[in-house]
Every structure is written in C-alpha cells, then in structure tokens.
Amino acid sequence: MLLLWLLTVAQWHQPRPQYDVTNYLKVADAYASANHAAALREIRQWHPWEIKSAVSDLRGRSDRLRAFATAPEDIAFGNVEAAVLMHAEAGLLALQALSLEESELHLRTSTDLYEWSRQAAARSRNFARMRDSLDAEHERTTLGLQIRERIDRVDFYQTLATAALAIGFPETARPFATRARQEAPLGAEVQLVFGCMSESLAELKILQRDESEGAPLREQADRAFRDALALDASLHEARLRLGRLLLVRGRLVEAEPVLEEVERLSADDRQRYLARLFLGRLAERRDRPGEAAAFYARALEVWPDSQAARFALAHALEIEYGPAAALPPVGASLSASRRLDRSADPWCLYPFGPPGLAGATLARVWKRALDR
C-alpha cells in the first residue's frame, strides 16, 4: 500500500505527457503562424512547473539546435525565438490583466530563454567553425553556421520596457530599460525610454511619499533626457520631458527656454499642447495668472478636447478676474465630458511614455522574428 502511494505521488509530480518539450515547441510553432492567438491561450493555461520543465528540457538539448529541422530530433532555432516572443506577449497580456504572478513567470521565462538562446547559437556556430577547419569536405557543418538570431538584443529589451511602461508599470519596465541602456548607451531613443521610465517611477514613489527614492529617480531621468538630446537634438519628446522635469523640481529659469523651444519648433500637436500646458503652470508658479491663462487658452487651440487645460484655464481666470470668469470654461468642460467621441487628453497619458513607441517597437521585433 505504501509503495502504491509513493508511485502515485511520484507520477503526480511528473509533467503530464502532453506538456513535454515536444508539445511546447509545437505551441511555439503555432504562435509563429496564423494560430498565434490560440497558442497564447494555450501557453497561459500551462502550470508554472510545466513551463519550467519544458524549458529546462529544451535547454538540455542545445546540441540539437539547427537553423532548420532536418531530422526528427532537431530543434529549429526559429521556434526558440518564437517561444521567446510568445512568453513576452503572454507576460504583457497578464500584466495588462493585473495578473502579476503570471506576468512575472512569462517575462522571466522570455528573458531567460532569450539569453540562453544567444549563448546556444554562438556555441553552435563556434562548433561548426571548428569542424569546418578540420573537415576539408565541409560535411554537415553549414547547419550550425546558418543559425542567425533575428531578435536584436536592444530591440528586445526596449520592446519589453516600452510595453510595460505603456501598460502603466514603470517598476516592471525598469530592468528592461536598464538593460537596453547598458547595451546601447549611444541610442537616443534608448536614453529617452530610460528617462521616461525613471520619470514615471519617480512620480509613483513621490505619490507613495517616498521622496528618498523619488528625488534620485528624477535626477536619473534628467540625465537620460539630456543624453538623448546630446545624441539627437531633434528629439523634442526628450526636450519636452526635460522641461517638465525642471519645472516640477522648481528650476523655472532653466525650464522656460526648454519648453519654449518645444512650443516653437515641434510640428507635433501633442507636444506643442503639453509645452503650452507646462508653460502655463510655470507662469502660475511665478504668480502670473493672466500669462498662465493665455498659455492654457493657446493649449486648447491645438487640443480642444483637453480637460486639463480647460480646468487650468478656469483656475487661472478665477484668480485673475474672479469666480464668474471661471464659469464658461468649466461649463465647456462639463459639456465635453458627455461626448463619447472626444479624444484622450495627452496629459492623462503622459506617464505611460511617448505615444505609439511601444506599438512601433513591438511591430519591429515581431516583424523581424516572425514576419508578421
């Protein structure tokens, strides 16, 4: 009886046959095809230990990695890269759904698998070169040499950072943005994303009354935005965020020309709107409500649906002219709030990073790796 119980327990702790590495790679292959949505649903149903077991088994078969599978035991490198992106997307979807443990599992699996795949591919190429040098006929050596990574390291970590930030989790974005910056310190966009992550995380810490961590993060964001501008002076997003950062830190004299340059030179309505909004706040900090009202009114010219600028205008008018002057913009704001077709206020989306950047980086990586 005891022996039977021990056998039952042992079987319970073994991966179910349908969740072995062979089926794991089939799910990854489906993800790379038109069945990617079904593959995502499938992998998110696997238990953590099933995923860990399959990935561990995969890593134990690195000698079978090939550019293309030509034998039953071969593992196509494209399927490994598909698995990397499958877990990345599953992790981001879980993060969006606030399933934090699931998100951590898939994102960690994605990054671990990615780093292992780079090392395994390099070993495969080195082994093939060694055989090349010993074999005048070059027999069976090209398969290893054909392995070429399609997921760029900087793009990979930049994608995870921008996506996590866009979902609203700067803390999750932090290690990815840091890794991308370590890999490409001379990348202007990389510095921009690192600065955005630091800025958003600083705001979160300060809201949590953790000034001891918030202040250094703001300083970190300041340096990143300046580095981005040093690398690409036309990067108005970095200039806009640097100006706003100087404003909230009370460095008004420095902030003003930075924001004025964005307002004057940027061709982007969102950036010009935010620059005018911040210039209005700067004027208020200087006790100039009339000047602030003018900036808020100009902000509304480029973004008429802005609730932030309209309420700020009402406040400035109330200070300058009295309560009656604030009634028209408040009434207009209440009326606009009933419209279902109004555009989102860029100020509300500001903490989530540059708009469109997450989608662009995701599309770039997925296109190169999966051609979709």
Mind explaining what this structure looks like?
With 372 residues, this protein is an all-alpha fold. The chain is built from 19 helices and two strands. It has a domain of 134 residues. Helix content is 75%, strand content 1%. Strands 1-2 form a two-stranded parallel ribbon.
Keywords:
single chain; 372 residues; mainly alpha; two-stranded parallel ribbon; elongated; disordered N terminus
List the helices and strands and how they pair.
Blueprint: H1 2-12, H2 21-32, H3 36-43, H4 48-59, E1 65-66, E2 75-76, H5 77-96, H6 100-134, H7 142-145, H8 153-167, H9 170-183, H10 188-207, H11 211-231, H12 236-248, H13 252-265, H14 269-285, H15 289-302, H16 307-321, H17 323-337, H18 346-349, H19 357-370
Parallel strand pairs: 1-2
Helix pairs in contact: 2-3, 2-5, 3-5, 4-6, 5-6, 5-8, 8-9, 8-10, 8-19, 9-10, 10-11, 10-12, 11-12, 12-13, 12-14, 13-14, 14-15, 14-16, 15-16, 16-17
